[in-house]
Amino acid sequence: MKKIKFMTLLLLSGIAMSWLAPAASAVQAPDLNGKNIVLADLNTGRVIYSKDPDSVVTPASLTKIMTVLLAVESVERGEHSLDEVVTAGEDCRAGLDEESSSAEIVPGEQLTFRDLLYCSMIQSASDACNVLASLIGGSIDNFVAMMNDRAKEIGCEVTHFDDPNGLSNNNQTTAYEMFLLTQEAIKHDYFLVVCNIADVTIPATNVHAEREYHNSNALISSQSVYGGNRYLYTGAAGVKTGYTRAAGYCLISTAEREGLHFLAVVMGCDGWLNAHIEDYLNFEDTIKLYDWGFSDFSYRNVVDTSEPVYELDVQLAQDHAKAVLYPQQRLRLLLPRDTSDDDISMEFNIFKDDLVAPVKAGEILGEAVVSVNGEIYGTVNLITRDEVDLARSEYMKRQLKDFFSNRWVIGVTAVILLIAALYVTLQIRYRKAREKYMEERRQAEIRRRRRQKEYEEKRRAGWDL
To answer: Over 50: is that where the pLDDT of 6 sits?
Structure first.
């Protein structure tokens, strides 16, 4: 494989991207209070900013993202339905104390599966999570095991759950793995519906009268317990708040404007209960991140499939034509607005050093790797657009050359030449022997005639013969 490094204004990239590296940038990220932060581009899954994303922390009520994901998936599989009436068991208040968020569900109360989802995400009701866990898993412990198995399937290596609601400080994760979990969860349509509801009314049950709940996510709810209208953010959607003294104030959310779509994980922030301040810095940090992302980042078309980027010599090509290579995919990258062309580099990997005609259109002959300030953004195949025809005269020359350069042919030719030489030698020897033989016969005939002539002369002379 031939590797060629090349700096250019025309750049390439691909789909199988290494998303973990933050985007290279000279733009200054905002000053943030949170201890563990991830900001990702949801259109590509690439992390564009992180702050201590791999430290092990407790997720508090962010745990409920996994609980509701499993519940939604059970509906998708047909195991449960949104209108299914569920009766709360004796374990519905397991692990709760007086300060725990709840929907005041009691054993024997009947709610629909849909309303349990609403209570879990909008009210952050730990008792609703217990009811769902017991229903889906057969027991809370079995459901927690399902949560841990699903986390591993998603790619989490550190995340471990000890309960379905986040009350236990033994729950552990990282900001980056919470990004992975949430990225998976929001792929499910009904999960998005649930987590993005600002206000909900839970109908009366066999135990309780009608209940109203307001989403604690102040980015989307003007009646959030965290500040009314002060944190409403245009374009924000979902996902979940969380707080314990061990976790601090946490928020996972998304925001979308003019084609840019971000997911922010903000954990370990200060607020009233842990820092005695009136501001909730999980919301302020999130807003700063989104403002920074929308103002300082933009998509750039760095690859156009209509533009050639490389040429390869082709042996035996008609009219000495070359194979012209194009990117197989168009590429738009989310980059800091101050990224210059000089910050972007490209490396070509050519698969065939000796390319021989004919070459088909659409043939993959190499790949290109794009980096921004040394960070790899991706790889894309390089393909031919047009056929490269074979030159017949050159083909015949090459065939003859190849034929006579073949070791087997050389060996056979040598044997044939040796046989021919022996044949010629034998022919020459045979011819010489025959000529000698004929000469000897001619001389013998001359001698015979001479003797016959002498005999006749003597006989006429009267010799007594």
So the answer is: no
